[in-house]
Amino acid sequence: MNKPPILQIGPYPQWDQEPLDAAFQVHRYFEAADKGKLLAEVGPSIRGIATRGELGANRAMIEACPKLEVISVYGVGFDAVDLQACRERGIRVTNTPDVLTNDVADLGIAMMLCLSRGMIGAETWVRDGSWAQKGLYPLKRRVWGRRAGVLGLGRIGFEVAKRLKGFDMQIAYSDVEAKSYASDMTFVADPVELATQSDFLFVTLAASAATRHIVGHKVIEALGPEGMLINISRASNIDEEALLDALETGKLGSAALDVFEGEPKLNPRFLALNNVLLQPHHASGTVETRKAMGKLVRDNLAAHFAGQALPTPVL
Ligand code: 8YV
């Protein structure tokens, strides 16, 4: 049987690449020196796209593939896929929900603890001899028992909140409506009000045009000079200029970020700050989760080409 031709937008680990190459005729977009030329050559034959959450597939790419039937995203977020272009042509879209939820929540909690307790600086304090020369490390702020806000109580937000309960924190959340499964948490409809009531604000919203810059200067300033913002969702949920201004002027205490506008090239203003923890978009980056994500990417493609129901459809 002929292998269906697919376009692979970004690299995967070897353990995913091998089975992908075995099942499909894979054209590697990310390896092409001239991407336009590759699209012009192979686009007309492409039936599937395998991409990653942050890379997605834009309209130009989709239009260069007139026979495209399915886009399989390695990631829960599909905001970088032009869904409107897919709807217009009946192109199916899949993602990898659930399998990454716990790891993403774990990293969010780790980021809160790491920044609150100054663990990166503390490591340097030991390594550069400051401990021996200067003595005790400067005191940091407590986490347990303080107030946490979760903006977006979906799967990931819920797991973040579940973990925060273990730190005896008071937990509130914002979402489009109160959730029946969150009766032990306080629902606060307005994100600005949520920020006012929070010491730590976790951003766990699925990104879309509707959530763009939902964390703007009002939310940031409501969180305040003692507050910490933790983003494990997408950069577009936060007004990054407003965030940088507030971090530079002390209107916001600190921020722990796993995602950035234009990543992996981030705004150099972040690098000059010492009240941030900067992470390279790796919240789902464990061997276990990435293996499960890769399998789901292939399972969705295989199901589509076998005419079976898609395991995790978006469209
Ligand atoms: C991945 C992601 O880091 O799930 C998402 O939406 O962005 C991440 O899990 C990414 O897709 C891996 O490249």
Structural overview:
This protein has 315 residues and is α/β, with parallel strands linked by helices. It has 2 domains: 5-95 and 288-306, Rossmann fold, CATH 3.40.50.720; 101-278, Rossmann fold (3-Layer(aba) Sandwich), CATH 3.40.50. It has helices at 14-23, 35-42, 59-63, 83-89, 101-116, 119-127, 130-134, 155-165, 191-196, 217-223, 240-249, 287-305, and strands at residues 5-8, 25-28, 48-52, 70-74, 92-94, 147-151, 170-174, 186-187, 200-203, 228-231, 254-257, 276-278. It has a 7-stranded parallel β-sheet. The longest helix is centred in the C-terminal third of the chain and has 19 residues, at 287-305. The radius of gyration is 21 Å and the shape is globular. It starts with a strand and ends in a 10-residue tail after the last helix. The mean pLDDT is 98. The structure holds 2-keto-D-gluconic acid (8YV). 2-keto-D-gluconic acid is lined by residues 52-54, 74-77, 100, 281, 284.
SSE layout and pairing:
Elements lengths: L4 E4 L5 H10 L1 E4 L6 H8 L5 E5 L6 H5 L6 E5 L8 H7 L2 E3 L6 H16 L2 H9 L2 H5 L12 E5 L3 H11 L4 E5 L11 E2 L3 H6 L3 E4 L13 H7 L4 E4 L8 H10 L4 E4 L18 E3 L8 H19 L10
Parallel strand pairs: 1-2, 1-3, 3-4, 4-5, 6-7, 6-9, 7-8, 9-10, 10-11, 11-12
This protein binds 2-keto-D-gluconic acid.
Care to give the gist of this entry?
This protein has helices spanning 14-23, 35-42, 59-63, 83-89, 101-116, 119-127, 130-134, 155-165, 191-196, 217-223, 240-249, 287-305, and strands at residues 5-8, 25-28, 48-52, 70-74, 92-94, 147-151, 170-174, 186-187, 200-203, 228-231, 254-257, 276-278. The protein is an alpha/beta fold and 315 residues long. The protein folds into two domains: 5-95 and 288-306, NAD(P)-binding Rossmann-like Domain (Rossmann fold), CATH 3.40.50.720; 101-278, NAD(P)-binding Rossmann-like Domain (Rossmann fold).
